[in-house]
């Protein structure tokens, strides 16, 4: 694992006497490669290593009797600093209904996550309404309805011939008149480079002003995680991230990439296909997973 | 200035960076660049364009490795294709697109709705069946996928179907019981026809990182993958993981998905792919 690699690299070099900057660079190269192997985005890994390097050329490391351990400690601290604290509270509005919008690439797990969130919030005493804003994917509305039925949460739909922004607005009116205090909008998967579809998200946002816009990202995503997160954030403005399929054996470097380029908190992780498989995100656990 | 060795090192660095950013992975990228370094030294290459072209040729070689095993043998009737992969990669959509391709070739196509787990999975495949003009065999949600598979095969025989495509539920390769279920589905088919399945197609999402290699290895071990379809290449991801997969397992990439529409499937062209990789 990375901790061991760093320690071994610097242990070998210490035999030569005083530690030089070149020696530190050698260890940092190990860090960069380990991050890349864990699917952290190339540019993100580079910037992270630069931040670590700045701290490594100080007294802390250069004068230490165990520079390897010092470097590991710094990498660990910088990872934790980057990932932030556990911040899984959703921004619930004072004036209901609170509106949560889920966005992301095709197949990332939005519809399933919508179901999971509805179930969680219902258990917390809220009255959620699921809203079917994916009018494109075959049987998308039916999928949300089946999930809603499983957890006893109603699904608002206007079929697939009404624009998603109009469905969202009608859902909000319906929620107000029927006493739902929370709305979860499930949107269609889309590419961050599809201007028309990205424009649709902006229109939905303008119609109903969601309190939370959560980017749903597949934890197994590689280099592209940084690109897509940046685009969604710049285009739509996200307030948080949910990483799905964390029950896979992926290293999860996408978590670092998404956090680094958007600065937004990762609020939950999906850890299974069933609707109870949603957990608050623990930043220190991802640091563990990436460091190996 | 072009004879200076330092120019080469900078070039190697740039090429390696391009590979990293395309999800080629650390190990495969470094192996490729090391191979290139050797060849450049041996052949005393100096022109950056020639060096880059050499790397492209090497990657092409790797991608074409599995292709010799290729033989579109639609002799068996029904020709059975099982479509597998982790959750959300595009299995069901790819089956729809494949169905269209075969229907256009005047083949009789039957879909088997063997994803009996996920909400509205059967409904989703039914829409595709209608769209392309394929038949469909389905049970109710929660039924045994092996039973659906068995029924579909019998129906394919009875109805004189040319191509039977089996849609399976998304499953993570690290879930042992789900992989066992997949092995059972395959066994059902091979019990009915020992030459079948004629194709076990692994669907990989181009946005997936190094985990794709693990997916390919485990699925290959479980059900002997004969081909890969790389989807969502219409996005910004390059799907570079296939290079390491081809290198290690020699499984050919047969198709690419370039969109959500019925016609958004192309046969894999390794030369085009390599050009885009460095594009
Ligand atoms: N193992 C696992 N599977 C998940 C998780 N979240 C979602 N899935 C599965 O991923 C697949 C895709 O989920 P969907 O909810 O349909 O994804 P989506 O983002 O709504 O897809 P589109 O609407 O087509 O963009 C399904 O098979 C889900 O069961 C998770 O946390 N773990
Ligand atoms: N842009 C793009 N989207 C695609 C492509 N292939 C599939 N999709 C989309 O990806 C999403 C998931 O597709 P599915 O066919 O449901 O994936 P799946 O593997 O069957 O999912 P599960 O059965 O839930 O595991 C859908 O929104 C599809 O439209 C592609 O080549 N390009
Ligand atoms: Mg969906
Ligand atoms: Mg499917």
* Amount of beta strand of chain A: 5-15%
Indicate the proportion of strand residues of chain B: 5-15%
Which pair of chains forms the biggest interface, and how many residues does each contribute?
A-B, 43 and 43 residues
Gross morphology of chain A is elongated
The Cα radius of gyration of chain A reads 22 Å
Question: Segments of chain A where pLDDT lies below 50 for 5+ residues?
Answer: none
The share of residues in helices of chain B is 40-55%
Number of strands of chain B: 8
Bound molecules: guanosine-5'-triphosphate, magnesium ion
Shape of chain B: elongated
Oligomerization category of the chains in this entry: heterodimer
The beta-strand count of chain A equals: 8
End-to-end distance of chain A:
5 Å
For the residues shown, what is the average pLDDT of chain B?
94
Uncertain regions spanning at least 5 consecutive residues of chain B: none
Overview of this protein structure:
- The complex is a heterodimer of chains A (292) and B (279).
- Chain A is α/β, with parallel strands linked by helices and 292 residues long.
- Helix content of chain A is 52%, strand content 13%.
- An 8-stranded mixed beta sheet of chain A has the order 3-2-4-1-5-6-7-8, sandwiched between helices.
- In chain A, α1 (2-14) runs antiparallel to α5 (67-83).
- Chain B has 279 residues and is an alpha/beta fold.
- Chain B is 50% helix and 15% strand.
- Chain B has helices at residues 5-21, 26-43, 48-64, 91-104, 121-132, 145-158, 176-192, 211-223, 241-249, 270-277; strands spanning 79-84, 109-114, 135-137, 163-168, 199-205, 227-231, 253-257, 265-267.
- In chain B, strands 3-2-4-1-5-6-7-8 form an 8-stranded mixed beta sheet, with helices on both faces.
- In chain B, a hairpin with a 7-residue loop joins β7 (253-257) and β8.
- The radius of gyration of chain B is 21 Å and the shape is elongated.
- Chain B starts with a helix and ends with a helix.
- The model of chain B has no long low-confidence stretch (mean pLDDT 94).
- At the A-B interface, α2, α7 and α10 of A face α1, α5 and α8 of B.
- Bound molecules: guanosine-5'-triphosphate (2 copies) and magnesium ion (2 copies).
- One magnesium ion (MG) is lined by residues 91-92, 115, 121, 170 of chain B.
